[in-house]
Amino acid sequence: MPQNGFYFDPMYFVFILPAFLLTLYAQGRVRSAFNKWSQVTNSHNATGVDVARVLLPREQLNDVRVEIAQEQLTDHYDPSSNILRLSEPIAQQPSVAAMSVAAHEIGHAEQDRDGYLWMKIRSGIVPLVSIGSSLGYMLFIAGLLGQINSLAWLGVILVSAGAVFALVTLPVELDASNRAMRMLQENGFLSSEEERGAARDMLNAAALTYVAGAAQAISTVLYYVFLLMGRSRRRSDY
Fold first, then answer.
1. Catalytic residue (choose from 59, 71, 88, 105)
2. pTM exceeds 0.85 for this model
C-alpha cells in the first residue's frame, strides 16, 4: 500500500467478500420466505393485528399500543413509547408470515417488560454506535492518509461499536423469535406440525439477516486492523 494513499487491495475481498455473500444470501432468503409464507393463510385466519390483540393482554402487555405503518417490512416495537408498529401487509393479512412477524415484535415488547439484559445493553450503546458510525470512519481515513496511527486506531475503536451492537443484537433477536414460537404455541395459533415448521422457517430466515449483519460489521473491523498492523510492521522494518 502506498505511504500517502490507497490502491486496489485484493485483501479487502478476502475479508469482506464472504460476509457480503452471506448478506446477499440472507436477504434473498428472507425475501423468499416472506413471499412464500405471506401467501399462505394461517389456520386461525388471524391478521397481525388479531395476533397482537390476543397476545398482548395474555402476556400482561396491556400498556402496549398497536399502530399500522404504511411502509412494508418496517415492523418493530418502540420501547420508548410502548408502541408496536406493524406494516400493512403484516397488520392486515391473515398469513403465516404476518402471524410470525407480529409475534416476534411482541417478543421484543415482552423483553422490554422483563428488563431483558441484552436488550438493555443494546439500548445503552446506541449513542456510541451513532457516533462511531459517522466519526469513526472519518477518523480512520484521516489517520490512514495522514499516517497518524493513533488517530486511525481511535477510528477503529469507534467503528468497532457497530460490530459490538451487531453482536449484541443477535441474542436479542433470537430470544424474541423463541418467545414468539412459545407464545404462538401456548395460545393455540400453531395447530399442526406443518404450521410450526412454517413459522419457524419465517423466523429463522429473518434471524439470518442479523447473523449476516454481524459478520459484515466484524469483517470490516478486522480489515481495518489488518491495514494498520501491516503499516506498523512495515515501519518496524525500516
1. 105
2. yes
